[in-house]
Amino acid sequence: MKPDALQEFACRRIAEGKAEGEAIVSTDAICFYLVEPETGIVIEKNHVLYGQSVAGRILVMPSGKGSSVVQADGLYKLMKHGKAPKGMIVEFPDPVLVSSAIVMEIPTVMRLGREFFEKVRTGMHVSLDADGGRVAIR
Amino acid sequence: MDLTPLEKEMLAGRHGEGVQLAMKIQVGIGEAFDAVRMVPITRAHVALSAQDADLWFVEKLLAKGARCRISPTVNPSIDLAYLNQHLFEIPKGGVDIVSATNAAYRRIGATLTFDCTPYLQQNIPAFGEIVAFSESSATPYVNSVLGARSNRESSQSALCAAVTGRVAEYGLLLDENRRAEVLVDVAAKVETDFDYQLLGWCYPLKHKGLEIPVFSGIPRRPTPEGFMNFGAQLNTSGAVSMYHIAGITPEAPSLEAALGGKAPSHRVEITDRDLDQVRGQICGEPGKIDFAMFGCPHLTIRQVAEIAEILEGRRLKVDFWVLTSSLTRELAGRMGYLQTIQRAGGHIVADTCIDVPPCWQPYYGLTGVTDSPKCAYYNEIRKIKFIIRPLAECVEAAIRGEVAR
Questions:
Q1: Strand pairing of B402-403 and B182-186?
Q2: pLDDT at position B357
Q3: Which residues contact A134 (CB under 8 A, 6 or more apart)?
Q4: How many angstroms separate the CA atoms of B37 and A34, rounded?
Q5: What number of other Cβ atoms are within 10 A of residue B36's Cβ?
Q6: Residue A53 designated active-site
Q7: Cβ atoms of residues B1 and B30 within 8 Å
Q8: What ipTM, to 2 d.p.?
Q9: Which of residues 138 through 177 in chain B touch A, CB cutoff 8 A?
Q10: d(CA B347, CA A20)
Q11: How far apart are CA A22 and CA A58, in angstroms?
Q12: Model confidence over B3-20: pLDDT tens digits?
């Protein structure tokens, strides 16, 4: 298979919708309270995405972290500034992240399997269809 | 999911758009966690925060006509009148968001307790009761100490549950997910309420996984305050929504029972050295302080009594804030504790949180003393530095204006 060939993966919907964009891949859990609302840049010290922006990208992450209040408030502030991720792909969803994604209406999916997380890289083009249960990368 | 006729009607919008939105969110959560059905709840607690997303969401539900079927208790925000009189003039932006949040929660049908310890007063679930509790100290307390059943709800999902009167059945609502998998041997000496702050902060640093822990080697039943501290720190330093203490908590009559008769998948040992290390990392060096703050979570009447006993006939050198529920403040007045603390120059303020900006703005950039690691952690973002000590030591420090060596 050529490196730029389209690869498709089945997935499960967390929050409905479709999204397309450039992937940004985190190997650390994300707390949206520690992402700067005006820029979408991760400001949490020692985070693998420190200094990088999630704005307008498809955020691929292992899980969310943070208390019941901060996750939704962080995402909300990013959306107000137009700096939220376009879509999210989560490996280990927790109740707080799931409810925040649904409430904020950000297309979000899960259950892609290990192979997806091994192949996906920051900068790849991702199209995500939560309703159709399908993610494509190239 | 297999929905009842009533739940299908809710989802189809036959009970209004607000109920429909709440139901849609809850079905989404249920599907994500493979829930088969929904189950009724009897209680809810919403971690009101008077921050942007909180107000936006409750107003969105209200605009679509939602009202709570189960009236939830709510977290504290700010007693605007008291702080205006005794601390500083709260900026208009802060007054507006707090007032609008309070009004919205009243209209949607919440019970305005403004207290983060509903499990000690006003909203106490019984063993086996299915509830939707958000708030970091509340979820572990109701699951672990009371044996009620709640998932780690967000403020928004708990409010949706209050509106529909039900939750998706998954996670900690099911017997098989309440069993401990991590065995924690507590070799450290754990006796005082403050020791539970350190133990609670320490465990998630030693084990990162989200499996339920059982703590073994705790000799005596912790006080309600010890349990309260323990859960608050476990769920701030980590994301622990349930734990067992062998021989003490209701679903752990023995270590074997807590583990469900199976071998633990992980073993962790916590020694005096581990707790000393945590103390060294988070408690801070002795030194001058500008103020003292207590009540994360809200102090109980026993803790208020302990403070008053130390302050009897003495004078405080720095600003001194005790945060508690309106009921506890009332009781403190009846017992004379309020007057003792006020004569010493301190305050008891009800309905107020350490973490609702902008109410503590005069202290930004300064140094305080507190007994709560959670209080210190959430205020890092506002550049308030806290030295952490046991409650009685904090009070002595506030009398001297300095934390002693």
A1: unpaired
A2: 81
A3: A8, A9, A10, A11, A128
A4: 35
A5: 10
A6: no
A7: yes
A8: 0.88
A9: 151-158, 160, 171
A10: 54
A11: 6
A12: 999 999 999 999 999 999
